[in-house]
Amino acid sequence: MTVFSQARSLFFGSVFLTAGFASLPFAVLSLILKGRPFDIFSKSKISSANFTILWSIVGKPSAADEKLTNKTISQAYGVYLDLGPGTGFTVHHFDKSKTTKIFGIEPNKAFHPALQKAIDAAGLTDIYTIVGTGVEDSETLKTFGIEEGSIDTIVACKVLCSVPEPKATIEHLYKILAPGGQFLVLEHVKAKWGIGALAQALANKIWPFLMAGCNLCRPTEAYLYGAGEWEVKDLQHPEGVSGHEFITFTQGRLIKAK
Ligand SMILES: C[S@@+](CC[C@H](N)C(=O)[O-])C[C@H]1O[C@@H](n2cnc3c(N)ncnc32)[C@H](O)[C@@H]1O
């Protein structure tokens, strides 16, 4: 583990946390201005409004993020699910020449206008459909033809931290994948022992409230590996990441057994 990557992660994590608190008054104000004053008494609605403001500002990827995301998304092909595309910061990485159809599963409707703008700018308008629900909502997904064995590629970039009941949801996603289909992953996960892990456990007391349910301490690799039988199971920490950082990532590809 490098001291530099640990310190860097703690620094950026603290900036995120501070920004999360600072945006709370604006989240309350935004609900009032949208004519939904009673929503300020709902913890989940404040949480969602707070993350909507926060992600639009601090979610913008750095050059290093762009490189990592491109490595993941450029492998997508066929019919795919883009899980939690948010404001569309990542949609320009999709390679249209390898794509039949993309379903962007985004429950936060406040993100949809920016997402649609990003889809149009990326030239994906005719093949990208926004589905305004959570990925666990299998009934709504079915109305779009998203059923067991129907999807060639699932892309999960910084979203499995936020889905409810992650183990069951990932098992459901495994079923949706076609045999031989691929699950492309770039996710922040539970840290290995050390200061980063301790800071994660402490910050996680308030982090999910500030960040619309984002959980810092998820063993997402274990959920993915355990979801079913895989032909390829290749999740690694990106270069320069040891797994001990406060915000630590796993990246890679799983291929469902045929
Ligand atoms: C941290 S943002 C990442 C956005 C985008 N993937 C990116 O990398 O820029 C997490 C996204 O997951 C979405 N999300 C949360 N719960 C979800 C669920 N149950 N199903 C699908 N997406 C979800 C959030 O609304 C948000 O847009």
Descriptive key words:
alpha/beta, 258 residues, seven-stranded mixed β-sheet, 7 strands, Rossmann fold, binds S-adenosylmethionine
Describe the structure.
The chain is α/β, with parallel strands linked by helices. It has one domain (about 60-255): Vaccinia Virus protein VP39 (Rossmann fold, 3-Layer(aba) Sandwich). Helix content is about 40%, strand content about 20%. It contains ten helices and seven strands. It has helices at about 5-20, 25-35, 45-60, 65-75, 110-120, 140-145, 165-175, 195-205, 205-210, 220-225; strands at about 80-85, 100-105, 130, 150-155, 175-190, 230-235, 250-255. Strands 3-2-1-4-5-7-6 form a seven-stranded mixed β-sheet. Strand 2, helix 5 (about 110-120) and strand 3 form a beta-alpha-beta unit. Helix 1 (about 5-20) runs parallel beside helix 8 (about 195-205) and helix 2 crosses helix 3. The relative contact order is 0.15. The site of S-adenosylmethionine has 21 residues, from loops.
Which fold name corresponds to the CATH topology? Answer: Rossmann fold
Distance between the termini: 37 Å
The topology string of helices and strands comes to HHHHEEHEHEHEHHHEE
* Helix share bin: 25-40%
CATH class: Alpha Beta
Number of alpha- plus pi-helical segments: 10
The poorly predicted ranges are none
Work out the strand percent.
15-25%
Shape annotation: globular
List cofactors, ions and other ligands: S-adenosylmethionine
Spatial order of strands in the largest sheet:
3-2-1-4-5-7-6
Q: Under the CATH scheme, which architecture would be assigned?
A: 3-Layer(aba) Sandwich
The CATH superfamily appears as Vaccinia Virus protein VP39
Mean pLDDT: 96
Count of the domains: 1
Q: What is the tally of beta strands?
A: 7
Structural class: alpha/beta
Over the alpha carbons, how many angstroms does the gyration radius reach? 18 Å
In this structure, how is the largest beta sheet organized?
A: 7 strands, mixed
